[in-house]
Amino acid sequence: MSVTGAESASGGEAQQADHQHQTVPSDISLRVKSLESLLVEKGLVDPAALDALVDTYEHKVGPRNGARVVARAWTDAAYKARLLADASTAIAEFGFLGVQGEHMVALENTPKIQNVVVCTLCSCYPWPVLGLPPAWYKSNAYRSRAVIDPRGVLQEFGLELAADVEVRVWDSTAELRYLVIPERPAGTEDLDEAALAALVTRNSMIGVENLASPKQVAK
Ligand code: FE
């Protein structure tokens, strides 16, 4: 099964679930719903607190946070040094804190090094800077093949690496989460930090995409 195919397949399912109200929810969503009802009924969780959590991860936390960290690292050498030395503390300077972001490591891509992040065991992912993981990140295909055949997986994402580029695959755990600092695209010398942040994609911060120069994109 292709990695990127896995994404579109589950994206399609999600869309269907949204629009076919007559269909029975999936087994997992029924289980979650029952569990939630039970916890609320027993007074163990406050529904308002649950809503606040969902709202946080839907609207406040996401890859735009990570993009701001990357843009700062590109424009401020002292910040980049702090980020590479102690990513958790440097990221906390932005106030991006919280679960699944406690122990962060920043990995810098260079013309000769491509860092790629996976969680082979489950789906560990740096929520405060990237939000919730995409479906393909959680798929068996990505989790197993990113380690066995990283170049093949990157090709499926449209990334052809030269033979002399070293691919480093990093396995996330509950203890360590990674943020890839993609290379700053050529032709962006005149852009300010906010404009640079707008160029940074989620996938580039997982390491499965490299950023094209804005001039290439415009062509
Ligand atoms: Fe995991």
Q: Widest sheet: strand order?
A: 1-4
Distance between the termini: 33 Å
Structural class: mainly alpha
Q: What is the fold named in CATH at topology level of the domain at 59-211? A: Nitrile Hydratase, Chain A
List the ions, cofactors and other small molecules found in this model.
Answer: fe (iii) ion
What can be said about the biggest beta sheet? Answer: 2 strands, parallel
CATH homologous superfamily placement of the domain at 59-211: Nitrile hydratase alpha /Thiocyanate hydrolase gamma
Radius of gyration: 19 Å
- CATH top level class name of the domain at 59-211: Alpha Beta
For the secondary structure, the number of strands is 4
What are its keywords?
single chain; about 220 residues; mainly alpha; Nitrile Hydratase, Chain A; two-stranded parallel sheet; binds fe (iii) ion
